[in-house]
Amino acid sequence: MPLIILTGIPCSGKTTRCEELKKFFSEKDKEVIIVSEAEQIARSGFDKNTIYLDANKEKHIRGLLKSEVMRYVTSTNIVILDGLNYIKGFRYELYCGTKSNKATQCTIHAEINREESWKFNENRDELDKYTREVYDALVLRYEEPDGNNRWDAPLFMIFPEQELDKEKIFSTLFDKAAPKPNKSTQNAPLSSTNFLYDLDQSTKKIVASIIKAKKENSVGKVKIPEFENLYIDVSRVSIPDLSRLRRQYISYSKLNPPNSQEISALFVQYLNTSLT
């Protein structure tokens, strides 16, 4: 699916634009899949202010987002990544992923006056607000997209009062050929025996723990032993499904290798997403 990357500082209208695009493409008979940073953070069990103050937690969330985006990216329909996406290197990684999957991509930069965005933040519910510390840090760290960079192009900048040129975005994604993969964007063949071993053992251990919970007649969300903050709803799981999804995840990971430290979390996320 073609990928639309929404990016902007906090409270710049990204989610509003996301819903606007979803409605537009749905009316064009395109399936739209939204990958939401806010939803991923909510599933993690952490407050977003905590996430953005902890580099490891934030990196973990980005890994989950990339994994979910790459799971859906093909040559048809639409994936919209709704999030800050403020790191240039992360946007480049997504570009490499779409290029290797022969899919088109564009970037939408939701721009806004900083004072105005802070006022929007202040009017949010308490649980949805950024603290001043986190807000200022995110604004300071924000790496604006540049249409001269191939990974940010084509780039559409939009202010809150402006109308988004949705027809042009549609043409960009569906009327132009996807860039051809090359060595810089294709994943190198796996050469690490340790990675393959870790991939096999981590997924096997998680599947075994879920099967054990099923045999003990557990219901609802169950914590995955030995893994902090990893849960799965075993009421939706069947053993054949587990085996099938484990094979799919291993095949995908061989083509798109995650960091070894992220294997378990990404696998549980993959199961939770696939079993909904």
What does this structure look like?
It is a single chain. The protein has 276 residues and is an alpha/beta fold. It has helices at residues 14-27, 37-44, 48-52, 55-72, 88-100, 114-122, 132-141, 166-174, 193-215, 239-255, 263-274; strands at residues 3-7, 32-36, 78-82, 105-110, 155-158, 221-223, 231-233. The longest helix is centred in the last third of the chain and has 23 residues, at 193-215. Mean pLDDT is 86; it is low at 183-191.
Protein structure class: alpha/beta
Taken in chain order, the helices and strands follow as EHEHHHEHEHHEHHEEHH
* Molecular shape: globular
Radius of gyration: 19 Å
Extract low-pLDDT stretches.
183-191
**What is the number of beta strands?**
7
| Mean pLDDT across every amino acid position | 86
- The span between the termini is 20 Å
Residue share in β-strands? 5-15%
Total number of helices = 11
The percentage helix is 40-55%
The major β-sheet equals: 5 strands, parallel
Within the largest sheet, what's the order of strands?
2-3-1-4-5
